[in-house]
Design goal:
InterPro entries: Arc_rbn_hlx_hlx, CopG, Ribbon_hlx_hlx
Number of domains: 1
Protein name: Ribbon-helix-helix protein CopG domain-containing protein
Structural class: mainly alpha
Helix content: 55-70%
Pfam family, one: RHH_1
Radius of gyration: 32 Å
Number of helices: 2
Number of strands: 0
């Protein structure tokens, strides 16, 4: 079994009543319900932060890709629009 520590927290009476009612309806202890609620909250928070960080990374990648595309198009258009030179054999390249 995982070691446990007792803590003291203060909750508004209304929240504690809801927790107690839920615990009774699920045949669980108050501690179990509060522990599950905290675990659920922390899991959701980690997921939210991960998604936010990923969105920032993808935005940076998008910006970088756009810059590379613009640079490539610029170089491509310069290359395509430059006058053709003649090789030694008289053909153009």
């Amino acid at each position: 079994m995982t070691p446990v520590k007792k803590v003291t927290i203060s909750l508004p009476t209304e929240i504690l009543q809801v927790v107690d009612e839920y615990a009774r309806s699920e045949d669980q202890s108050r501690s179990f319900v509060i522990k599950e609620a905290i675990e659920s909250y922390l899991k959701e928070e980690v997921e939210r932060r991960t998604v936010a960080e990923a969105a920032q990374i993808y935005a940076q990648i998008e910006k970088s890709d756009r810059q590379l595309s613009e640079e490539f198009l610029s170089i491509s258009s310069e290359t395509l629009s430059s006058p053709k030179r003649k090789d030694r054999d008289g053909s153009t390249s």
